[in-house]
Write a structure and sequence with these properties.
The chain is α/β, with parallel strands linked by helices.
Length: about 270
């Protein structure tokens, strides 16, 4: 079973405009149009069985709408062969983070996505650390955008040093660092985060990180803590999977990375 642990979709009525806006901000071209049907078609072509959808709450008032959309997606795909599994979202400026995290848990959502750049908050801010701590208590998975966001290249709010402070103070459980620990800051991430009890996903990594660096971090961090991910629609699922498979990785470790680790983490 192949799992893509990091994808994005948007409601039909805003998908086209959202993708166009994000393409303009980041000066990149998306692989799909951001619609649900486009992701499932991509999964079919690539042989991906399960895609984890990660919504980002950019304003506190979006909490209910985004999480209800996640619930609807999960209900729709719970018995399908090609399955989407959406996480929930929370904004650090929420007036009651414990209440909202409990609601996410009660809705049956497996985890949350945090994005320091889109949420205008530094990773080691107390607001994030409280969310991470309570999410851990509830058994929720937390995925955080780590490193440079190509739409905001001059202001990095989630650096390896800030992540290191969070790990030392909070000791979060089920913590996933997107973009292989920190996009564009891989050597620093390797130095500060390798061998820590965190997961690294491979979203939007291939084609940017040197293969030698990727494999060196894999060896240091351990294959048990690596999750195949693409950041679809910003990377192609078929292309990313092909790149991973051509690397010098043992069949046993490849199975862990492409599915076994994710299934264990998701329970």
């Amino acid at each position: 079973m192949i799992v893509d642990f990091h994808t994005h979709i948007f409601p039909e009525k805003i998908a086209a405009s959202t993708i166009k806006k994000l393409e303009t901000i980041a000066s990149v071209k998306a692989f799909t149009d951001g619609r649900e049907e486009s992701l499932t078609a991509s999964m079919e072509e690539a042989g991906v069985d399960l895609s984890v959808v990660l919504p980002v709450v950019t304003k506190p008032e979006q909490f209910e709408t985004i999480n209800q959309f996640a619930v609807q997606i999960n209900k729709k795909y719970q018995d399908k062969k090609r399955r989407l599994l959406s996480f929930g979202g929370i904004h650090p400026d929420t007036p009651d983070y414990k209440k909202e995290l409990r609601m996410i848990k009660e809705l049956g959502l497996a985890g949350i996505k945090l994005h320091p750049d889109y949420q205008n908050t530094y990773m080691d801010d107390l607001k994030y650390m409280r969310i991470l701590g309570y999410a851990s208590e509830l058994g929720l998975i937390t995925v955080v955008h780590a490193g440079v966001d190509i739409g905001f290249p001059d202001h990095v709010r989630c650096t390896p040093k800030r992540i290191r402070r969070v790990i030392d103070k909070v000791h979060p459980e089920n913590f996933v660092l997107a973009h292989y620990g920190s996009f564009g800051l891989w050597e620093e991430a390797e130095e500060l985060l390798s061998r820590e009890d965190v997961y690294l996903d491979t979203a939007y990594t291939f084609g940017f990180i040197e293969d030698e660096t990727f494999l060196r971090i894999l060896k240091k961090h351990g294959a048990d803590k690596i999750l195949f991910a693409t950041d679809s629609p910003w990377s192609g699922q078929k292309e990313s999977l092909a790149h991973l498979k051509k690397l010098s990785i043992s069949p046993e470790d490849l199975e862990k990375i492409t599915g076994q680790n994710a299934l264990r983490l998701l329970g």
